[in-house]
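Sample pair:
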Amino acid sequence: MKKLRALCINPWIYDFSAYDYFSKPIGLLYVAAYLRQRGVEIDFIDCLDKHHPELLARQGRTRPKLRKFGTGPFHREIIPTPPMLAFIPRRYARYGLPEDIFRKELKRRARPDVVLVTSFMTYWYPGPQRVVQLVREVFPGVPVILGGIYATLMPDHAREVVQPDYIIQGPGEIQVAQLLADWFHLPELKENIPRHIDEYPYPAFDLYRKLDYLIVMTSRGCPFRCTFCATYKIDAQFSQRHPENVVEEILTQTRRLRVRDVAFYDDALLMQPEKRIKPILWELLRQRHQLRFHTPNGLHGRFIDEEMAYLLYANNFRTIRISLESVAKERRRDIHNKITPGEMTRAVYNLVKAGYQPKDIETYIIMGLPTQSIDEVVETMLYAHSLGVIIRLASFSPIPGTVDYQRAIEQGYFPADADPLLTNKTILPLFRTREAYERFHRISQLAHMLNEGAKRGVSLFHPSDFRKALKQALEDFARELEENPVMEATGARE
């Protein structure tokens, strides 16, 4: 009897910038592994594959340009900027394989019975849209299923614009299997449904021809309800894995796939530390591994006590990012009081005591929220710089379904019927003007200058009288820019 054949596709990114910072479609890879375990034949195309031999030949390389720990830039091709984004003084691009190479990849495949396409940011929808168009040209009549973040948060828009045959919202393994069971009369696909997340097979990273790093999740979902985040909309359950199973996956997969770098994708990695992450790290330490670990998602700094800091350092965690977001009391109380400045200070102190340099630690600071002043952003940046850590500015993107998305609409910052392209964080979505872009670009330049000092161990905050004077001058300057756009525009031309 012929096996059911599924083609899984990770689409392009259309944006002003994109970078492979531990970026892999782990949801799609979980679905692929789950279906394969049940006898479905799986094929896979990643439009963001930097190791594709035809792409490397076109670039005149034998291997892709990689930077630290297997991260690096995606291949970029400049394309016309959508008219609604034309005010941004940057080039718009498609990131990933050239379109002709993708067409060849489709034509090399035997005709699949179904095509599974994932999606990420809502404003990246042109990627899955174009993939579905090309799939229908090459494989007319083959049903297309769209899942992922965009499909989950904006299903109506996806039905109208991408026009898949079916949309999956939320975790996809069981939903896709049940759908295929009904479509193709394969009741066995509905059997033995997992009752716990540890019962799912490991993500199918072996589908890659070459892997630079591994992605691991010790949990799904998030117990927090931050006003700007939609994680709980994507996966309503906060489910945690057993520590011994996480350790087994890490050791087994890194040996099998021959990778050294491992990135944790959890949104709440340090939650309930005594129950989960600390046992994982103690066991990993006992195994005397040679791995390097990374936390690209922001950590909850309040859980970084002395023991946690020791375990992170002893286990060779090379990327440490802590979610600070804002030091303003009202802001912290509003978005979700995950960490106070005092807890942030203590977390940094514990990490430094464990062996890190302050410049090894990074922190996320949010900007561009509804009603958020530049003063608040600058104050938070200066506080982070006083600790000697590296600042990572995170521009606010109004994500459909979140509290701040609804606030932005109600307060007149954002149109209720906006095209998802207007949620792109690069354009400062609540302002959407060249002037606002230039204003926040200057804040980014300030962050860059502070970071350059931090990397050299130079602080702008000693002695204390200089710190106070600088803080006041920066606040006054930021306020003047806000109140006098004419001066800002003149300065931009100069």
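The two ends are 72 Å apart (CA to CA).
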